[in-house]
Amino acid sequence: MLDVDREEITDGPVGRVLLVLAAPLVAQNVVYVANALVDTFWLGRVGEDAVAAVGLSLPIQSLLGATVVVGAVGTQILVSQRTGDGDEAGARRVAVNGALVALAVTAAVALPVVVYAEEVVALLGADPALAGTTATYLAIVIAVLPVGAVGDTVENCFTAYGDTQAVFHVSLVGVLVNLIAAPVLIFGVGPVPELGVAGAALGTALAGVAGLLWILGYAAGIGRDTFRLTREAFAFDPATAREVVSVGLPLGGQRGVSELVRVFVVALVAVAGGAAGVAAYTVGARVATLAVVPALGIQQAAQSMIGQNLGADAPERARRTTTVGTGMVVAGFLALGAVQFLFAGGIADLLAPDLTATGRSLSVLYLRILGASYWALGGTYTLLAGFNGASRTRTSFLADLVKYWAVRFPIAVAAVPVATTFGAFGVTVTPGLGWGVEAVFWAVAASNVVGFLGLGGYFLYTTRRGMFTNAAERASGGDAEAADAADD
């Protein structure tokens, strides 16, 4: 793979540097998603119920993944800013304290979920036939959430530093472990018993542990000499930990509000579409996760570039990184969406060949609807990179609050049959309009488009008011209070 000198991040051609930095991250995310698709691929050979069981657990996993974001992304943003400002010791101090934050926050939420996995799954209103299997899968995967959180945080330090190839290597190790472990544990080979869905979860857990060990080796200087954690960095610094939390918490909130809606939406899908609807939603969600990989890679690279340029007092270059990245992603995703629309049937057959006729029909429909909104979905990632790199992480939180709660969820509720009632705190409502599970699919696409257009308009407004200039003053130790006032 091509490499980028640290000087090029603040001086080289924006488009080229962004693509070179993003390339290993895109490859890393492809590998990461492949890790998830391994489960769907093999469990699709077990049956529709197995796919649906994992699908029911996905929103809960993603919701809890919001706690990972607090430490991991908060650390990335601050490490990139300190690196751009030449504060190497400060960057290492952020890395250690960010990892401690990630470990503490994720452990606090993982333990009760593991203990009460069956009760958590029951809240989704799942079919009793699926609930037990789903709870088993969920408990195993969430038990290793703190391990993944620490690994992600340390990986993000390498990304912030500009060494994106290290992150790709770690993900490749993880997926290779899962590629071997998943079929062995799911179907049983030799002395290994057939574990089914539980085997898929164990394969995922083993991959996470392998990835953590690999990135810690790099951080210790084994096989890599870019971002290294020295002995002096291993000291708890309350001020640095608070700073990581202050930057990362809105991003965790952003992830949380979006994933909480997904939990509710899956419950709506289960009511409106049954096992076939959940399986179709799972297929669409898995494919969409793979489709956004390029945008996610460019977002991660852009956040590091923007942070380093703000630390180096180059606000105009930070703005240009955002706009160039967004333009590239929107153009690419228009083409990607067209391909998915045309080959939706083949994609569904490849991932889950044993779907019922209804499940396959719904999967094809959802894949086509998703493809039509990919340009907006991808562009949103790079727009958010601009705000996140400038430490305006509250904007990301508010943008997703509107996108998911004001647009996606109200439309999705219309899918529920009219006769269905929901009760809480003595109040019973019948919100459904009986539009069918297809309404959920359209709700996802509509929220993607509205979210991108609204965020784009706000980006133009804030940049004209000097968002990046003010952020550069903060990052380089200027008049932070004046910069904050100007942003507001």
From TrEMBL:
GO CC term, one of those recorded: plasma membrane
GO molecular function, one term: xenobiotic transmembrane transporter activity
Record Pfam families: MatE
Signal peptide as annotated in the record: none
TM region positions: 17-38, 50-73, 94-115, 135-154, 166-189, 195-221, 260-281, 287-306, 327-352, 364-384, 405-427, 439-461
GO BP term, example: monoatomic ion transport
Principal cellular location given in the protein's record: membrane
Top-level taxon of origin: Archaea
Record flagged with keyword Translocase: no
Protein's name in the database: Multidrug-efflux transporter
